[in-house]
Amino acid sequence: MESKRVTETRCFKVARVFPTDVNNHNTLFGGRLMSHIDDIASISASKLCRVTAVTASTDSVDFLHPIRPTDSVSLESFVSWTGTRSMEVFVKVIREDLRTGERRIAATSFLTFVGLGEDNKPIPVPRVIPETEEEKKLFETAAHRKEMRRIRREESKKFADYLLTKYPWE
């Protein structure tokens, strides 16, 4: 399987923040931003493997600065690392004050995706080749994030054993 440059998976999305997008604090509703993040990340993942890619986990969404109705929100995503059958996608969220032009990193997110074959089972994915300093830094630090995901997944499975499936009204 041929490797691909990270840039081949890069995607961009820009949106205006409307009154229907904000919460009671007059900032972009976190769920709306998470929807944008998963959407763009899935496109980057599919661009890498050229098959249906599904979210295996949302590893993190770190909200760093509020996004207001006077801002635009720009998302940039790309596959930052690949394993054998999974890929890590990084999403950077930039808010821009449309009155002043000031830009800030508003959020960052890491998601894990798998590509599915015709039988809906995970398939091997191409390796990525980082080129920019940003891509290289994310690639170099991916092993630690992968280990943290593995530990968190094991803990989640153990925790799920304690959870009830019975509805309260039963």
Order of helices and strands: EEHEEEEEHH
Indicate the mean pLDDT: 96
Overall domain count: 1
CA-to-CA gap between the ends? 52 Å
CATH level-four homologous superfamily name: Hotdog Thioesterase
- Helix tally equals 3
Parts with pLDDT < 50 across at least 5 consecutive residues: none
User: What's the CATH class, please?
Assistant: Alpha Beta
β content, as a range? 25-35%
Structural class: alpha+beta
Strand order of the largest sheet: 2-4-5-6-3
CATH architecture: Roll
Percent of residues in helices = 25-40%
Gyration radius, rounded: 18 Å
User: Care to count the β-strands?
Assistant: 7
CATH fold title? Thiol Ester Dehydrase, Chain A
Shape: globular
Keywords: Hydrolase
GO biological process, one term: acyl-CoA metabolic process
Pfam families: 4HBT
GO molecular function, one term: long-chain fatty acyl-CoA hydrolase activity
Give an account of the 3D structure.
InterPro entries: Cytosol_ACT, HOTDOG_ACOT, HotDog_dom_sf, Thioestr_dom. Residues 7-119 form the HotDog ACOT-type domain. Keywords: Hydrolase. With 170 residues, the chain is α+β, with helices and mostly antiparallel strands. The chain has one domain (4-160): Thiol Ester Dehydrase, Chain A, CATH 3.10.129. Helix content is 28%, strand content 34%. It contains three helices and seven strands. The strands form two sheets. A five-stranded antiparallel beta sheet has the order 2-4-5-6-3. The model has no long low-confidence stretch (mean pLDDT 96).
